[in-house]
Amino acid sequence: MSRGAVKNYCRSAGVDRGFALAARGGFSLLELLIAFVVFAVAMAGVMSVLGEDINNSAALNDYDGAVRLARWKMGELRQLENFSEDEITGEEGKYTWLAYMETVDTEDIPMHVEEDDSESNYSPALLIVEVNWKEDEGSEKLVKFKLEGYKAFKYAPK
After folding, report:
1. From CA 131, how far away is CA 74, in angstroms rounded?
2. Is residue 158 domain-resident?
3. 102 and which of 37, 117, 126, 156 could share a cystine (Cβ 3.0–4.6 Å)?
4. Domain of residue 87, residue span
């Protein structure tokens, strides 16, 4: 249908000019408003999901940093020659950490196979590293990560 034919049809039917524009293939104001509302609702849903993903990503980065710090400190404990009952504490950026050792019986060690040699010069110890950090900058809630490992020390602890 040509443009003139649409105008004539609308004039004869008593339809206003806005409908004539819509009949030509354009959109009315009401249709645009409805489309905008549908788009806004869809984008609000998408943005809320993205916001949660950003929060989850930040939490994963925090845990990753805590795990790396705990493994580093565990490596330092494993380098020690002698058993120590002292606690070692420190602070690295947003993390605070505590490292210590505890004596253990060989029966308490997972996967330990008892040997007949009771005259061993080695004594097992449980190595523990705890890392703490605040969940959010303004928050008082602490998140904790604990790493445990075993090491046999050459001399029995006193």
Report:
1. 11
2. no
3. 126
4. 3-153
* Lookup: tokens for 153: 């020390």
Q: What is the CA radius of gyration of the chain?
A: 35
Distance CA 44, CA 50 (A): 10
pLDDT in single tens digits along all 158 residues of the chain: 566 666 666 566 655 555 555 556 778 899 999 999 999 999 998 888 777 777 788 888 999 999 999 999 999 888 888 777 888 999 998 999 999 988 887 666 665 556 655 555 677 888 999 999 988 777 778 899 999 998 887 754 44
Amino acid identity for residue 112 in this structure: H
Asked, for residue 98, whether it belongs to a domain, the answer is yes
Residue 147 token pair:
């790493």
- Which among 51, 137, 76, 150 has a CA at the least distance from the CA of 109? 150
H helix runs in the chain, sequence order: 3-13, 17-23, 29-79
Structure tokens at 156: 């029995």
Pick from 107, 100, 33, 94: nearest CA to 58: 94
Q: What is the DSSP letter of 106?
A: G
Domain count, the chain: 1
